[in-house]
Amino acid sequence: MEAYKDHSNFSLMVKFFIxxxxxxxxxxxxxxxxxxxxxxxxxxPDINGLMTGSAAAxxxxxxxxxxxxxxxxxxxxxxxxxxxxxxLQSSVNFEIDDMGNTSVSLDTxxxxxxWNDYMTFGIGKFDSSIGKFVPNLxxxxxxxxxxxPVGFDGDEAAPQSEVGAQIRGGFNFPYCSKVNxxxxxxxxxxxxxxxxxxxxxxxxxxxxxxxxxxxxGGRIGFLPIPSLEIGVSAAFGDLSLYDTSSNxxxxxxxxxxxxxxxxxxxxxxxxxxxYIQQEAEVNPDxxxxxxxxxxxxxxxxxxxxxxxxxxxVLRYSDYDTPFDSQDQRQWAFGIDYWLAPSVVIKxxxxxxxxxxxxxxxxxxxxxLFAFGF
Amino acid sequence: xxxxxxxxxxxxxxxxxxxxxxxxxxxxxxDLAHGAELWKDNCSRCHNPRPSSEFSSENWQTIMSHMxxxxxxxxxxxxDVLAFLAPEYASTQVTAESPVSTDKKTLVAENSSxxxxxxxxxxxxxxxxxxxxxxxxxxxxVACHGANGKGAIxxxxxxxxxxxxxxxxxxxxxxxxxxxxxxxxDPMAMPPKGGxxxxxxxxxxxxxxxxxxxxxx
Lengths: 373, 217
Description:
Oligomer: heterodimer
Largest sheet of chain B: none
Helix content of chain B: 40-55%
Strand order of the largest sheet of chain A: 1-2-3-4-5-6-7-10-11-12-13-14-15-16-17-18
Strand content of chain A: over 45%
Largest interface: A-B, 83 and 73 residues
Radius of gyration of chain B: 20 Å
Radius of gyration of chain A: 22 Å
Structural class of chain A: mainly beta
Order of helices and strands of chain A: HHEEEEEHEEEEEEEEEEEEE
Order of helices and strands of chain B: HHHHHHHH
Distance between the termini of chain A: 51 Å
Distance between the termini of chain B: 62 Å
Shape of chain A: globular
Number of strands of chain A: 18
C-alpha cells in the first residue's frame, strides 16, 4: 500500500510537470517576428507594480458585554509584473490584538509564470483553492458582512492557504460559457492529537513537509451562463499527526477536504452559498481512534436597491465539529452603505447559537468601515 | 468512496487539459465591447465593478494580471477587459487579421501600424464613425446601461426615468459622454467615452441620438 502511494505521488508529479512543459516547449522555439512583437506590446517599464489591498476599522459589541473598537486590519497586496509573463503576488496582514500589539503575517507570496492564454504556473504560498469564500470573498471590502461565515475563518473548517505549486486558468467550452480551474500540489497538513482524538487540522499551509505527505487537489468552476457559477473542489493527501507539545507522532493517516459553491447574480440581487469540509480519515491505531470532521456551510442573499447606495444582506451559516464547544450556528442581518465601489460602511447584528454561556452563544453587533485600494 | 475516485479524477482532468492545450486555436483580437461585458460579468461575481478612473493604465495592466488568476480568465479575456479599462492601452493595440494560436498574441506595437484600431463587437476594425448609434451603444454602453437603458450594474442610472440623466441639455450630455461623469454621492463613475477612446465626436452624437430616441420619455 505504501509503495502504491509513493508510485501514485511520483506519477502525479511527473504528469504535472510534463503537462506544464508542453506549452513551454512551444515558447522555447526560435521566436518568430510576431512573437517578438508581442513582447513589445507591454506598455511602460519592464517591471511594473503597485501596492493594492484593503484596510478596515470597526467596532463590535457582544450582548451584555462592553463594546470596543477592536477591528483594525491592514492587508496590503503587492503586485509586480515582469512584462506580461511574470506576476509576483504577496499579501501581508497587519492586525492589532486585544493587548494592542501588532501582529504581522505573510498571507500569500507566489510567483506566477504565464505560459499561454489558458494556463499559468504558480509556486509559493497561495490562498487555498478549496471553495470560493477564502480565495475570492475574504477581503473586507468584498465580504458583504463584517465577519466571515462561521467555520470559514482561520483554524476552522475551511483551508486558508497552501504552500506548493499550482496551475490555473480558464477556457471556453461549447454549451457552457466558461470553465475555470486550479490544480495544485502542496505540503501536507498537520493535525493535533490529544486523548486519542484528532483535536484540530491546520488550515494554513506549512513550509515543512514530514515524510513527503503532499496534498493534491483543485477546483473547477462551471459557468453555464455568465451570471451563474457552480464550483466543486477537493484535495487529498496524508496527515502528519502531532501531539499537543508539537512532537511528531505519525504520518500516513488520510486527509481530505471537499467543497462546493454556487453564486448567482440577477440584476441587483446577489445570491451565493458554499459547503466545505475538512477531514482526518483515521485508520484506528494506538495513537488515534476516530475520524475528525470539521464542516461548515453558508447561504447569503444581498440586494442593492435601484439607484441607491444601500444594500441589505442576510446570511445563515453553520459550523459543525467533533466538539460541542466549537459548534456554532449564526444568523447575520446586515446593511451596507457604499460610498464608492470599494468603500463601504457595514453594520450587522449576528445572532449566534453555540455551547451555552460560551462566546459562540453570544450575539454581536458590529460596524466596519472598509476600503479596497 | 473518495479514495476510489481520487486517481481517475485527476488523471482525467490532466488528460483533458493536455488535449485542450494541444488543440486550442483561436482569435487574438482585442475586443472592447467584449471587454465591457466581461468587466461587468466577472467583476460583479465577487465585488462591485471598479471604474477605469481608479487606477492608471499601467496599474490596470498589473491588476489585470492578478485578476486573470483570481477570476480564471483566459489571456484573451484579460486583454479585452484591459482594453476597456485602460483606453491608453487599447489605443495602441491592433488586431491580427488571421486567426493564430492565442499564445502568440500578435498584438503589434503602436509604431508599426499607427492607423490600426481595436476590434469591435462585429469583428471588424473599429472605423467607429461609420457605425450607427445603436451599434455603438451595443458595443460600448450596454454593459453598464443595459439593453433597456435601466442600468445593468449597481450605480448605473435609469435612463428611462423622466427626471433622469436624459432630462439634461444635449450639450451637457455630450460633455458627460466625452469627458466622463460622476454624480455627487454616486459610487460609480462613467469613464470618458464609456471607456472606448476611439469614439469620434460624430460617434458621440450618433449614440446620444440613439439613446434619446430609445429611452427618453
